[in-house]
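SAMPLE LOG
Freezer: B-3
Tube label: C17
Construct: single chain, 217 aa
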Amino acid sequence: MTKLERARFIQQKLAELYPHPPIPLDHQDPFTLLVAVLLSAQCTDVRVNQITPALFALGSTPEALAKQPVSVVEDIVRPCGLGPQKARAIVGLSQILMRDHGGKVPADLEILETLPGVGHKTAQVVMAQAFGIPSFPVDTHIHRLAQRWKLTDGRSVIQTERDLKRIFPQDSWNVLHLQIIFYGREHCSARSCDGTTCLICSTCFPNQRRPTKTRKA
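STRUCTURE (predicted):
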């Protein structure tokens, strides 16, 4: 298969497996999604979903969390890892949203990336899942699978994002990035498939016998 043929096959199979992929992180609005995605750094979505009910009971708006002591927020989010940093970021970005943005999460990638604790991937997730703006957030699953499927050389997460945006239609990005994540978790994980085992890998590369080496995100 050529790269374009692989991309079309992959998109078709993922659409069959996950026609309506859910957003993995529980949230009610752009702000609670932003906080949940921030907490998911180096933490599982399952753990985040266990923690956020207590956090959002404390405060589910920028106005409420901006007033909370960092130590109180840290006590709640500590199980997500990096508790001090994440707590400072949550309180800090809440204060900035109140001071500069009327208590609203801006639908602007560049502004989101200036908020404490909000990197490029987090900002892209919010743009895609909260505002429906075409984005292609690249997490570890996507970075790994894009290399296995030879859609990128994996030199960096940013390069993987650029390569995937070039090869897949823009109107598919917001759904496709979720589909790849679910496939990576359920069918083509780092342990369950070495680039030769799962349906997509074995179909795209039927003659491959050696495991595919991938670069970490």
